[in-house]
Amino acid sequence: MSAVVYVNGIISDASTASIPVFDHGFLYGEGIYETLRTYRLEPFLFDRHMRRLRHSAALMALPVPLSDAEFLARVRDTMAAHPARDEKYIRILVTRGVGELSYQLDATPTPTVVIIVKPMPAVPDRAFLEGIRLATVSIRRNHPQALNPMIKSNNLINNALAMQEALRAGADEALMQNQGGEFVECSQSNVFFVRDGAALTPPLSAGLLPGITREFVMELAGDIGVEAREARVTPADLAAMDEVFITGTTREITPVSSIDGRPVGDGRPGPVTTRLLAHLRERIAAS
Ligand code: PMP
């Protein structure tokens, strides 16, 4: 694996980077993360990712030990240590740090900071040109009063179980519902449904991660005259949807060709999805 990893000030390669077993990120899954990517070797929407990182941290009373400028400097140092010149995948993690086997906050006085930099995996063109397959899964998204999906938590068991169920069904991504049966998001991405030209995405209040790409796409839809708004969507509404797409840092806007084996629209990327993706790419090119 060609990765370079920063751990609390020390940069090394993937095979030697390690954290102590008594780190509560490992023991209890108590930590948060952000996934960013570069375009032309510049981290994209860095400030927005920092804002969400701090929000995740606040929701679990986790002190964030660095300023945004300090994070950026460490990201740049870690990127500089990566030999390849290709675009980067960047994962920033903050955990409670090392301490006794106790849930008391003072057991872990020093948070751990990890930055992973590796080549950005290429998303096959086929995904954008033909779309991907979603499967609805039996695993429900965490209830906000149990483990708030707004916390971008290192504890990804809920997401992993959902994705593994989708993979078993032969799909590329898992479409998840909340406890009330409304669609909320996918295991690693947000979801939009297009009906009568409007792009609808489940409301944050339904219990989902506020995706940076979701937010960005909702803003830029207006530039090209596409109405984008939050709306509750249930399985009964699916048949009326003309298009479906997912959003995420690494997936940009990816069209969905089928859900549970049933084609969405005519099974090919629709006009709203295609226009939004083209506009997103223009904005990226101009950034
Ligand atoms: N939902 C979940 C559960 C995710 O893991 C991700 C990927 N980080 C997203 C949505 C998309 O978020 P973003 O656009 O910030 O990458």
Question: What's this, in brief?
Answer:
This protein is of the alpha+beta class. The chain has helices at residues 24-28, 46-59, 68-80, 125-130, 157-168, 212-221, 271-285, and strands at residues 4-7, 10-13, 31-39, 42-43, 88-95, 112-119, 132-136, 173-177, 183-186, 190-195, 198-201, 228-230, 243-248, 252-259, 262-263.
Query: Which secondary-structure class do the elements indicate?
Result: alpha+beta
Low-confidence stretches: none
Could you tell me how far the N terminus lies from the C terminus, measured between alpha carbons in angstroms?
30 Å
CATH topology of the largest domain: D-amino Acid Aminotransferase, Chain A, domain 2
Question: How does the major sheet shape up?
Answer: 9 strands, mixed
- CA-based gyration radius: 19 Å
Helix count, DSSP H or I runs of 4 or more residues: 7
Please identify the top-level CATH class of the largest domain: Alpha Beta
Name given to the CATH architecture of the largest domain? Alpha-Beta Barrel
SSE order, as H and E? EEHEEHHEEHEHEEEEHEEEEH
At the fourth level of CATH, the homologous superfamily of the largest domain is: D-amino Acid Aminotransferase, subunit A, domain 2
Proportion of residues in extended strands:
25-35%
What general form does the structure show?
globular
Bound molecules: 4'-deoxy-4'-aminopyridoxal-5'-phosphate
Number of domains: 2
Number of strands: 15
